[in-house]
Amino acid sequence: MSRWEQIKQDFPIFNSSKNSDLTYLDSAATSQKPKCVIDAVREFYENYNSNVHRGIYGISETATDMYEKSRENVSSFIGSSHANQLVFLRNTTEALNLLSYTMGRNLVSGDEILISIMEHHSNIVPWQFLEEKGIKVNYTDITADGKLDMEDFRRKLSPRTRIVSLTHVSNLLGTINPLVDIGRMVHDNDSIFIVDGAQSTPHMKVNVQDLDCDFFAFSGHKMLGPSGIGVLYGKEDMLESMHPFLGGGEMIRTVTTSGSTWNDVPLKFEAGTPNIEGAIGLSAAVDYLRGIGMENVRNHEKDLIEYTLKMEEEYAIPDMVSYGPKNTDIRGGVYSFNIGEIPPMDMDEKFRENGVMIGSSVHPHDISTSLDAGNVAVRSGHHCAMPLNHRLGVVATSRASYYVYNTREDIEKLFDQLEKIRKVYDLGR
Ligand SMILES: Cc1ncc(COP(=O)(O)O)c(C=O)c1O
């Protein structure tokens, strides 16, 4: 049994009688959970369940200790110099909304925010909220091979750009963006640099000090941890200077009828009872990933995407198109594709006759449903990146995305089934 087949054994879902023979290719949406993570959460509930930072009895002190140790563990996993710089939130989406809300308070009409056309909606919509204050959101374009267009980036990085917020890895194209170089340019421009690490932290070694980003956001559920736990890393002085996001218990130092003062960071941003078991489960996930080694995780997924591109060539399925860079040095384990072109409604005149789609295409939802019949789980849709779909001239794609429990056999199964699907939908053309 190969190392990766052995790793797959650590994930109870693949041994469950409810879904025998599952080929799970949707880890960009959410990952499966190893037994050690499930056990860590169960162990907390069975032995220590109590609230944190409040009780002065045994199990509550243990719970607080477990929660804060989890913070330290996750903090060191991303190379943060101090655990105080790590705020536990629900997910990447909440972290980016927190930043838009708190940073937005200091922005004025005419200020600009620079993002890119390859962002997930969670790194677009929170910034669009600020447009009603007269703040402009600019979008860096992509090149034909799915990379950030650096010329366009330089052009749009202006003296008015207050914030640059970019994804580390695209959830649709798999592109790994050159953030170290970009970070330098952003800071030379005196702008704040925010990184959406939802698709990088699970899959490669991340070091926030090397990136020199001011903020970095990611989600536990995409990196073998539980749902409902996410992280915002922020440089301590930046977090200190920011206004709180949510108000309530835990985030205050004093409350009087004439006003309130705030707790120290990071608790200033953790209003209410936090997701204690989520933090503990995420810490267990981090230990598990450390055990494999993040370089090994990255190399394994690089091998899988290389193999995918090779299979694509070998199978040569008629009308199959895929998206994202062919250079696997800058490509994560994400493979988005279509069989035939699926243009959006406002771009599709040439593909329609009397309202009926012409040309040899299989809708991504049909691909997904047909693959499901053969126990292959992929996601189809816009992948919460509608502007990128529009830029690519498609309404949707199917997406296979990989993780530590996937092997080359999964990819062979995917292509075997796609070939069959193409034939079924061929309709004699
Ligand atoms: C690049 C990227 N950013 C942000 C998110 C949002 O993550 P969450 O739904 O966990 O907040 C996702 C989720 O797919 C993503 O792929």
Q: Would you give an account of this structure?
A:
This protein is α/β, with parallel strands linked by helices and 429 residues long. It folds into 2 domains: 3-30 and 293-424, Alpha-Beta Complex (Aspartate Aminotransferase, domain 1); 38-291, Type I PLP-dependent aspartate aminotransferase-like (Major domain) (Aspartate Aminotransferase, domain 2), CATH 3.40.640. Helices cover 36% and strands 17% of the residues. It contains 14 helices and 17 strands. It has a 7-stranded mixed beta sheet, sandwiched between helices. α2 (35-47) runs antiparallel to α10 (276-292), α3 (58-77) packs across α10 and α11 (294-315) packs parallel to α14 (408-424). The protein is globular, with a radius of gyration of 23 Å. The model has no long low-confidence stretch (mean pLDDT 95). The protein binds pyridoxal-5'-phosphate.
Radius of gyration: 23 Å
Strand content: 15-25%
Q: Report the uncertain regions.
A: none
Q: Approximately how much helix is present in the residues?
A: 25-40%
| Associated small molecules | pyridoxal-5'-phosphate
The structure class reads alpha/beta
Number of helices: 14
Mean pLDDT: 95
List the strand order in the largest sheet. Answer: 2-8-7-6-5-3-4
CATH class of the largest domain: Alpha Beta
Assembly state of the chains shown: single chain
What is the annotated CATH architecture of the largest domain? Answer: 3-Layer(aba) Sandwich
**According to CATH, what is the topology of the largest domain?**
Aspartate Aminotransferase, domain 2
**Spatial separation of the terminal alpha carbons:** 43 Å
The count of strands amounts to 17
